[in-house]
Each structure stands twice: as C-alpha cells, then as structure tokens.
C-alpha cells in the first residue's frame, strides 16, 4: 500500500478531544540516537542507509505499529511528503530528506517515527485536544520497547545524546497547538508570548520554529530538555496550557461583553467571504476559518459545524488541494479551487446569528 | 409641510429610465442672475434677503411647481440639508447657506431651483437613466417661463452673466452620473478620463467637483458654456455618454470572457460582506454595493433586486441613517446601523450564482 492509499484507507486520528475548542492538538516527541552510528547530519549516505536498515525493522516490529505505513522517504512523492507536513505528521526538514531517511506511521496516525531526521529517531505521539499526559505515555511506551531492541546513545551525566545540544538530556519536546483568536483580537497576544517565554517555554507558529501564526494558531512547547524530568516537563506545560485556555476564555468573555459587535463583525465577514469568494489564498482562508471557528465557539453557528471547519483547515492547504488533481496546479489555480471547495462546503451553512446576551439567573 | 414631511409624502423620482444599468441619472442645470441685483457672493445679507423675496414667489408660481416644497435655507435643519445633498438635489455649497438663500423643489423631485447659491438662480432638472434631452427640455421650459417674470442679467456679446466666468454664456451644465465598475476593475478608467477630458468634458466623483469616485460612480459634464449652443452641448454630451456606455459594456464582456472568476470573486465577496458584516463604513458600503449592482447586471442576482440596491446607495448615507434616530449618532454608531440595515435588506437575497457562459446560437 503506498502512502496515498494508506492515508485514504486509514480512519485517521479522532476529531474530538478534551478542551478542543481551544487546544487543537497535543504532541510529545522524543529524540534518540543509536550508539555507534554517526548522527544523520554527519553520516555519509551509505552509513545513513545502513542505519535506516537497522532501525526501521525494529520500529515496524512494535505492537503499536501493526497495520502501519512504513517507507523510505525517497519512496514518497513530493506531494505525499507535503501532505504529511500539512497534517503535522512529519517536520518540514524531514520532508526534504530522501534516500537513507524513513518514516513509520501508525494506522490511526497517532504515532509517527521519523528515522534519520536530525537524529536517528524522532518518535512522536499526536492527540486531539489537551492530552499531553496520554501523548507522553504513548510515546514513552514506544521508547521503552525500542530501547530493548536498540542500544541508545546515552551518557550517565548528560542523558540521551542528540545531534543538537538543545535536545540533549531527555530529548523531549512537549507541545500543544492552541487556537487563540480572542487574544489576537484583543491585541494581548504579544504580552502572552512574552510571559510564556519567561517561563522558559517557546511560542511558535502553525508549522513550528520560524513559521507564522496563521489562523491564530500558536504552538507552545518546552525549550529545555536538560535538568528536568520528562514527567515534570509534561506537567509544567500542562499547567501553562491550562492558564492559556483560561486567558483565551477570559478574552472571549471580555470581548463579548465590551465589544460584541466587533467580534460578530469579524465572524460575519469571515463567513460571508468564505461562503462567497471565487478566489482565496491559503493564508486568508486560514485566518477566516479561524474567525468562523470562533463563531462556532460563540454559538453563532451550530457546534455540529466544528469538525467541518477543522477538516477545512487541512483540506484547503496547498498539497491537499493538489492531490485531488492530476495536472500540476499553479498558486492562482489553487486559489480558485480552494474557493470552490469553501463555497461548496460552507455555502449550505446557515448565516451566522448573533446569540442573545447570556440570560441572568432571574430571567430563567 | 416641512421638508422631512414633504420628502416622506412625495412619490419621489421614478426609479427606472433608459440605460439605467449604467447611467444612474441625467441632469441639466442653468445658472441665471437677475439684472440690477448684486451677485449673491457680493451682496450683503439684506440684499440677498431682498433678492430671495423677489425671486422665490416667481419660482413658486410656475405651473411645474404645483405642490412643490419651497423654503428659505435657514428653515432647514442641518440634517435636512445633508439629506438633500445625499439625494443630489442641492449642491454642498448651497447646503452651507442660510438666511437669504432658498430652495423650491417640485413634487416629484425632478425639478429643483436653488436661489442665491453662487448665482441668483440655479435651476436643475434631474432624470433617471440617460435622458439628457428630456432633462434639458424640462429646465428650458422653467427658464423660459421665469424669463417672462424676471429680467435676467444678459449681454448680447457674452450671453447670460454669471458670478463665475466658467458659467458665462449659456450658463448650462449638462451632466450624467455613470456607474462604471468594469472599467475600474479592468484598470481602464484613467485612460477613459484622459480621453473624455480631451473632448472638453470633465469627469468628477459622486458629489461633483473635487469629490471621490465612490462606488465606481463618475459624473461626466461639459466644461465650457461659451461659444456653443445649449442643444449642441446636450447633443455632444449625449454622444460621449453613449460611447462610455459602450466602453463599459465592452469592458464587462471582456472581463467575463477573460477573467470571469475575478469578476465573480469581487461580486461574491461584496455580497458576502454586505449581508454579514456588523459594522461598515459609508465608503466601503458604496464600493461593495457597486460590485453587487454589477452582479445584478451580470445575472448573478435577479434583476428585480436593482431598485433595492439603488435605494441602499442612498439609504446608507450618513444623513439618511441619522434621520431614523432622534439622538445624534457618532460615525461608529452609524457604521453599526448601516451594517444592520444592509444585513436586514440583503440577508434574504439569495447567494449569487455564477451564470453559465452565454449559449452559442447552435446550442439554443
């Protein structure tokens, strides 16, 4: 089965999870290397190929990987690699790799092991909503089982050795993808980023390091991997995310109280454009889908529309649009097809209504 | 009856006319002065009051003015004056005048005589669509009848004397208000303006001299009033307007053929925003109403919606919004009320459809 067939046939990850109004996904990834093999960035091609041949069967053999997709990166088309990036299953860096790098992706897409990315092993667990602990437990099990099959590069003093010192020690990166439109509308996001940075956490855009916060989506993750246990890191991030949820909820409540028309103006215009445009860029679509998603959270649209919105976030990305067509599309052509898809999907959605102000207890 | 009651009770001008897809209105105005009286800009207040007292009864006495509104400018509220400007019935300059200036407005609003504007008499005839000749004939009759009752300042060599030399001679200004969205979208409007200027005609914005071309509406008028007969001027403008209609129709056909998606993108977005925004400025509303009106002309919406659109062009203007409220509205408050009106009126209009390409004769 090639990857396109695999992605088409597999059920994919669950579309629901705790706090998924604000937390789109939780992710934990571990970086590991095999003792005695050169790091991928240093190794020559034959060494990388040898390392891949050694590691891949061990990953494939894990019980969690029953029915998984497994392949070398050079077996994937550029389009397939881009689709994996748009689904946040592999890094942009890994998508650029070829012979000597590989990928094992579990049947439900919740576990993904990149082989010969920056490190020999980058294992990640991805969950819907706020499920950092569950994500960590899942990837921890993979790690424990692989450690029985492969000898990791490990130092008693430094912990797990990694290609880049920023991952040294636990090799863990815990992150949550947050939808924070009200903090952006209330112009509080820069403050929030500064505060989160002071806690030693990083705030990044939609596709990780150095990317833009499209669609009001921000990724919060730990910076340090040394001097703190994995459980502590997960717990710390969990607390900060809980605070960010509260900040976003407060910002929504305040906006609704002080500037309801401003909020509904954004939501209404977003819907109006998405449901009626005949050409729309990926960036504009994401930003408007974000505002429409906020409208769902604020009861301007029925909550039953949320899965559709979330699906459109991904389905309107360039590679996802391209895969439905045989001929290579230009950016302009994609803008037309994206608008066609959005009109078809959102046109039937009823126009937003401004919900009445919350009833007081007496009025009930 | 005060002006507000008069405007509410009167049937108003017809909403249909020849070529009204593109020509919104035709207007002819004549500037005249009474011999022996100082020009209004030179006259002292008592002289202006005296001139008004002399002239107004003569205008009121015309058979065309049966059932007309007649009043001194100081009897009008600032809001009423602004409403007259928004309906193109009086000039901005006249709206700023007070004691010693007056106005006589026919029952159907098609004839309006300003007294002591820049000249003693500014008589204008306003018609829907392309009706320059009819408009001229109507105002010419008023002029002929008034000339029997008042002695005009006239020179055998120079013709009718006027306060500003640009009106000297015939004192005529013939103008048409054109809706030219396709020429704007095709970025041909600057070329057109240059060409029209070379013919000795002026192209101005929505509210005349020195105003912006909001809503893709342009006013074309003669520049010269000397050395050419009134009928010739009307005929020349008529020909140029006919050419502009053809240019606009060609631009529409070309856009539909070469860039249909671009056109429908503009039309769809305009509708989407108008029908769903909760705050919108006058300027944005005019520009979007213009694009939606183009959509009606292109059969994206039923033609039965055109009168509604044309009404909204005026009804969303600041003074028209204000008159529905007793308390003084701020610009921000008007933006909210304007959006409320547009959502209520345009929300029930079905979403635009892209019409099929024109059928070839064989396909019929």
Report on the architecture of this protein.
The structure is a homodimer of 364-residue chains. Chain A is an alpha+beta fold. Chain A has helices at 3-9, 45-60, 78-86, 92-95, 132-149, 181-185, 189-198, 230-258, 260-274, 282-297, 306-315, 318-322, 331-346, and strands at residues 23-32, 69-72, 102-105, 111-115, 121-128, 154-155, 159-160, 172-179, 201-204, 217-222. Chain A folds into 2 domains: 12-252, Creatine Kinase, Chain A, domain 2, CATH 3.30.590.10; 259-346, no CATH class. Chain A is built from 13 helices and 10 strands. The first copy, chain A, has an 8-stranded antiparallel sheet with strand order 2-3-4-5-1-8-10-9, with helices on one face. Chain A has a two-stranded antiparallel ribbon with strand order 6-7. The longest helix of chain A has 29 residues, at 230-258. The A-B interface holds A 261-262, 264-265, 268-269, 271-279, 336, 339, 343, 347, 351-352, 354 and B 261-262, 264-265, 268-269, 271-279, 336, 339, 343, 347, 351-352, 354.
């Amino acid at each position: 089965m090639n990857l396109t067939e695999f992605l088409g046939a597999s059920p994919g990850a669950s579309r629901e999870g705790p706090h998924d109004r604000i937390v789109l996904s939780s992710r934990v990834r571990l970086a590991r290397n095999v003792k005695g093999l050169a790091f991928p960035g240093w190794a020559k091609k034959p060494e990388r190929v040898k390392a891949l041949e050694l590691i891949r069967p061990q990953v494939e053999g894990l019980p969690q990987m029953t029915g998984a997709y497994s392949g070398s990166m050079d077996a994937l088309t550029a389009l397939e690699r881009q689709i994996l990036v748009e689904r946040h299953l592999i890094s942009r860096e890994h998508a650029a790799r070829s012979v000597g790098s590989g990928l094992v992706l579990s049947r439900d897409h919740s576990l993904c092991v990149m082989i010969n990315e920056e490190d020999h092993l980058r294992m990640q667990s991805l969950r819907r909503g706020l499920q950092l602990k569950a994500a960590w437990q899942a990837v921890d099990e993979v790690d424990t089982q692989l450690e029985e099959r492969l000898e990791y590069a490990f130092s008693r003093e430094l912990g797990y050795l990694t290609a880049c010192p920023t991952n040294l020690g636990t090799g863990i990166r815990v992150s949550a993808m947050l939808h924070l439109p009200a903090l952006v509308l209330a112009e509080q996001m820069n403050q929030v980023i500064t505060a989160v940075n002071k806690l030693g956490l990083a705030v990044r855009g939609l596709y990780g390091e150095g990317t833009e916060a499209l669609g009001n989506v921000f990724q919060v993750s730990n910076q340090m991997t040394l001097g703190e246990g994995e459980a502590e890191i997960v717990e710390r991030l969990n607390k900060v995310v809980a605070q960010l949820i509260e900040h976003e909820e407060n910002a929504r409540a305040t906006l609704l109280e002080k500037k309801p028309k401003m909020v509904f103006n954004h939501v209404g215009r977003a819907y109006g454009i998405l449901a009626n445009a005949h050409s729309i860029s990926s960036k504009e679509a994401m930003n408007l889908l974000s505002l429409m998603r906020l409208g769902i959270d604020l009861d301007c649209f029925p909550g039953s529309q949320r899965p559709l919105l979330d699906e459109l976030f991904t389905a309107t990305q360039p590679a996802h649009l391209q895969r439905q067509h045989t001929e290579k599309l230009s950016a302009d052509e994609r803008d037309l097809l994206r608008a066609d898809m959005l009109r078809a999907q959102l046109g039937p959605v009823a126009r937003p209504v401004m919900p009445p102000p919350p009833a007081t207890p007496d009025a009930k």
